[in-house]
């Protein structure tokens, strides 16, 4: 199946229904010029997953995880069908392989599931029949074929899993930025694009909350040596960062205003909390300077997770801002999300950017 290109389009690609036809036109150009089949992983329309979460919580503030997984995953499925129908309108052959069809088997941690098995059969059979196979991101099933969700923003992970299943050596990830920058280019003035980044650097950045790539996606890509090519999500789909084994270790300031640092009474208590969050599939970093644990990226019902794990709730310490220099990370703590933004800007203003690429064209100002 190496004559298949693996592409992923994030939620920021789909701002309105006309986005599906725009993308179908772009895919059609690729089909015509390259002659390769396409496996296209898509995310939900921007905001749709959280709207569904809101509706679920309107009915029950503590829904069961299996129910949440089934409900949240439908947003990406709708998106996949909208893209397929846009392609059909142009006369192209396309179909959708949903989570229960695509061959990704996970454990039963319904909301933060881990892939334990990949069956390449369904994808390869379907690609023989259709020019484009559209796969909704973030969906899979457990061994009993119950719907599971790979977690928030996990379509990147689906894309790498699909690349692996199809024997591909590269995966093109499209977003509203063309690559990885020295800091969030929508929030930090002067952020610069990094043309070549190592898997380790990309994984470290996503571990500390850089939203552009999913941490486990980068780890899976490293394990199977799948090069990640980042591209902008509108024609002409400009290529920015390439992530590979050869990429550079660089300097970056990473933060996510939804991340929080929780404090515990002792190092042992912090280690236990970190272990329990990790076992539940939630991204955390144990900040070893103090008995602190950073819960990265938000969208975690902390109260509920702590209650279920019988964990004494941690106390709020602040929002982490990571200064990454190669493999060395210093974590600074800001009082809240707004402070984190200002701290990130100050730190970024002081870093050397010798090997970085161009600055982001139109950085937005603080508070966006
Ligand atoms: N270091 C960084 N480099 C590039 N983008 C970043 C970085 N840190 C955070 N981001 C954010 O990641 C966003 C892209 O990720 P995401 O919102 O998940 O996109 P998509 O919906 O297309 O998957 C960008 O809009 C940008 O604001
Ligand atoms: N349904 C997913 C969509 C997704 O994976 O997001 P992204 O656009 O970052 O790929 C979510 O909101 O988590």
From TrEMBL:
It is an enzyme of class 2 (transferase). Its EC number is 2.7.2.4. Pfam families: AA_kinase. It comes from the Bacteria. Residues 4-230 form the Aspartate/glutamate/uridylate kinase domain. It catalyses: L-aspartate + ATP = 4-phospho-L-aspartate + ADP. The keyword Transferase applies. SUPFAM superfamilies: Carbamate kinase-like. Belongs to the aspartokinase family. This is aspartate kinase. It comes from Streptomyces pseudovenezuelae.
């Amino acid at each position: 199946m190496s004559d298949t290109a693996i592409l992923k389009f994030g939620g920021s690609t789909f701002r309105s229904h006309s986005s599906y036809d725009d993308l179908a036109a772009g895919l059609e150009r690729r089909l015509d010029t390259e002659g390769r089949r396409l496996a296209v992983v898509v995310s939900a329309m921007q905001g749709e997953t959280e709207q569904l979460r809101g509706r679920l919580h309107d009915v029950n503030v503590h829904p069961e995880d299996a129910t949440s997984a089934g409900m949240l995953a439908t947003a990406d499925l709708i998106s996949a069908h909208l893209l397929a129908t846009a392609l059909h309108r142009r006369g192209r052959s396309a179909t959708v392989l949903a989570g229960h069809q695509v061959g990704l088997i996970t454990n039963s941690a319904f909301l933060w599931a881990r892939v334990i098995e990949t069956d390449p059969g369904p994808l390869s059979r379907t690609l023989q029949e259709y020019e484009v196979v559209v796969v909704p991101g973030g969906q899979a099933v457990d061994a009993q074929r119950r719907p599971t969700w790979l977690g928030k923003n996990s379509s990147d992970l689906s894309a790498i899993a699909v690349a692996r299943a199809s024997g591909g050596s590269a995966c093109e990830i499209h977003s509203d930025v063309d690559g990885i920058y020295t800091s969030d280019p929508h929030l930090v003035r002067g952020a610069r694009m990094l043309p070549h980044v190592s898997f380790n650097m990309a994984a470290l950045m996503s571990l500390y909350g850089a939203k552009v790539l999913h941490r486990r996606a980068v780890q899976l890509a490293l394990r199977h040596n799948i090069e990640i090519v980042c591209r902008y999500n509108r024609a002409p789909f400009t290529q920015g960062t390439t992530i590979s084994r050869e990429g550079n270790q660089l300097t970056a300031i990473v933060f996510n205003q939804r991340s929080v640092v929780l404090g515990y009474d002792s190092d042992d208590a912090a280690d236990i909390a970190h272990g329990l969050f990790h076992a539940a599939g939630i991204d955390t970093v144990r900040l070893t300077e103090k008995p602190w644990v950073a819960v990265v990226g938000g969208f975690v019902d902390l109260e509920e997770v702590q209650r279920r794990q019988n964990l004494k709730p941690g106390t709020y310490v602040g929002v982490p801002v990571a200064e990454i220099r190669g493999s060395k990370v210093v974590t600074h703590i800001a009082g809240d999300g707004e402070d984190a933004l200002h701290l990130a800007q100050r730190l970024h203003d002081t870093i050397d950017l010798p090997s970085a690429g161009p600055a982001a064209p139109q950085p937005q100002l603080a508070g966006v």
